[in-house]
Design brief:
Layout lengths: L2 H15 L8 H19 L13 E5 L3 E4 L8 E6 L4 E7 L2 E7 L4 E4 L2 E8 L4 E7 L2
Length: 134
């Protein structure tokens, strides 16, 4: 290796060694807290895992209406869930069949052997628990 390259590499190594280390301060701790809060908020608004509901058993926290596939063993192949501040509508469809239930907060019902319980309900969020009954 030519001497000029060694000198450049040595100069680069020296400049890297001279970079001061960051010392945690109150503002750095606050920034870390804000970042953690942002990550938590993002996780809370993340899309629900609808594939987990394919077997008819899952818990959903919804901020908007959804539609997803379910096992054909229930006699339907798709569930569509919409809600308002007072009512949750669960509609099951399949080839030549449609079944639906309208539920309020705290109530339970079923759509073709899939039990639905409305855990909580507001204008912006619905929390449901689905259970397979077949």
């Amino acid at each position: 290796m030519p001497p000029t390259i060694r000198i450049a590499a040595l100069a680069a190594a020296a400049s890297i060694a001279l970079v001061p280390l960051a010392v945690p301060t109150a503002s750095a701790t606050t920034a870390a807290t804000v970042t953690a809060a942002t990550v938590t908020a993002a996780a809370a608004t993340a899309k629900p895992n609808l594939r987990a509901c394919y077997d008819g058993t899952c818990k959903l926290s919804l901020t908007r209406g959804v539609s997803f596939r379910v096992s054909s063993r229930f006699g339907i192949t798709r569930l569509a869930i919409t809600f308002t501040s007072a009512t949750v509508r669960v509609k099951g469809t399949g080839p030549g069949v449609m079944s639906q239930a309208y539920l309020g907060e705290g109530s339970t019902g079923s759509v073709n052997h899939i039990g639905v319980r409305v855990v909580s309900l507001s204008s912006g969020k619905a929390v449901l628990r689905l259970t397979a009954r077949r």
